[in-house]
Design brief:
360 residues; alpha/beta; Rossmann fold; Glutathione S-transferase Yfyf (Class Pi), Chain A, domain 2; six-stranded antiparallel β-sheet; 11 helices; 24% strand; globular
């Protein structure tokens, strides 16, 4: 899977940008604030229909303009698809090969992209919300249909919490408990299914990165153990008094976590800074390896200035993996200084300055 064209018009600070990407390595170089990350965000938007940064639709449109768009031509398995997304304060619209897409589900899966950003380096020692986000994004890349489970759960949770805040009746809560239980069961099933496939790949990847010095274990850590719809309903009923007191739902996938162990000890509590970096690198490489194993092709990889955040050893390991046949995918990487990078003749460098680009 590769992008052969990418363009952006009035997207963030990108006025009229057009790239003819290299099939292997694309270096997006520029000063801080020049618009490098906006290029990656545009590609990510085309793959997932959402961005990886906070903000409303109006924040995605260049200041002083009414609308913007991103567009890409994607080649995959002898098929070429053109994806275009227009953005305005009123919403987003998606076109596939010039035809307006009526449902998000039919637009998903046209482009698979994995993001590795500096924020990911706090993944193993940060809050559970970051690990849940990593897991749900990874599941989405493998099974785009899982997005429906996430949306249904978020909607049901929002409605139940709104009812708790307004002291709604038990009769109404019974209705929302049923809805939330169905959504919680489905989302937790997706997560456990992914972890089951992911764990051995992560274990092997960590062994390769550390030369066998560190063993890693990843487990899904639910806030409550429930394997059926009825068990989830029972949990919400038993928690009702506590939930009313706190005016929010106190159990469910929205507070679950991933437990990561290094040599049978909690990585969050006991890992050194170097071990945290090794584990994050292993998590991202394992995610890519899983996709290639399951889908038969490598995703497009988006690296947002990660090279300046990793130490020399981890940079070398990442570069070795990206240059290997085990990956074989297309990479877009941002940097303020391309001397950090070593991709030889396999790369094209695009210089971004104030939302405009030049190739050199």
């Amino acid at each position: 899977m590769k992008l052969t064209e990418f363009s952006a018009v009035d997207f963030r600070n990108l006025r009229r940008l057009r790239l003819a990407p290299n099939p292997q390595f694309n270096i997006i170089e520029g000063r801080n604030g020049a618009g490098k990350t906006n290029v990656l965000e545009g590609i990510f938007l085309l793959s997932s229909l959402k961005t990886f940064r906070p903000g409303k639709n109006k924040d995605l449109v260049r200041f002083g303009t009414q609308s913007g768009e991103v567009r890409a031509v994607v080649e995959h398995q002898d098929t070429t698809r053109t994806i275009r997304i227009s953005i305005s304060p009123k919403g987003r619209r998606v076109w596939i090969d010039g035809k307006l897409v009526r449902s998000a589900a039919s637009a998903l899966g046209q482009l698979t992209a994995v993001l590795f950003a500096p924020e990911d380096l706090s993944l193993t020692k940060g809050s559970p919300s970051g690990r849940r986000r990593f897991l749900d994004r990874a599941i989405f890349n493998r099974w785009p249909g899982s997005l429906d489970a996430v949306k249904r759960y978020e909607s049901a949770l929002k409605q139940r919490n709104a009812l708790l805040r307004t002291d709604g009746s038990d009769a109404l809560l019974e209705v929302f408990d049923e809805q939330l239980a169905r959504a919680a069961l489905r989302l937790s099933q997706w997560r456990q299914k992914y972890i089951g496939i992911f764990h051995p790949i992560l274990e092997e990847t960590m062994q390769l990165i550390t030369g066998g010095d560190l063993r890693t274990t990843v487990m899904y850590e639910p806030s409550r153990l429930a394997d059926t719809h009825d068990q989830w309903v029972d949990i919400y009923r038993k928690n009702r008094r506590q939930d009313r007191a706190r005016k929010s739902t106190t159990a469910g996938p929205h507070i679950d976590d991933i437990c990561l162990l290094l040599n049978d000890r909690s990585a969050k509590l006991y890992a050194s800074q170097g071990q945290h970096r090794a584990l994050v690198l292993a998590l991202k490489i394992a995610e890519i390896r899983l996709l290639k194993q399951e889908l038969g092709y490598a995703p497009v990889l988006l690296l947002d200035d990660v090279s300046s955040e990793l130490d020399a050893r981890r940079n070398a390991q990442l570069t070795t993996f990206l240059n290997s046949e085990a990956f074989g995918g297309q990479v877009f990487i941002t940097t303020t200084d391309r001397s950090w990078l070593d991709f030889d003749s396999k790369s094209t460098c695009f210089r971004i300055r104030d939302g405009d680009t030049s190739e050199h």
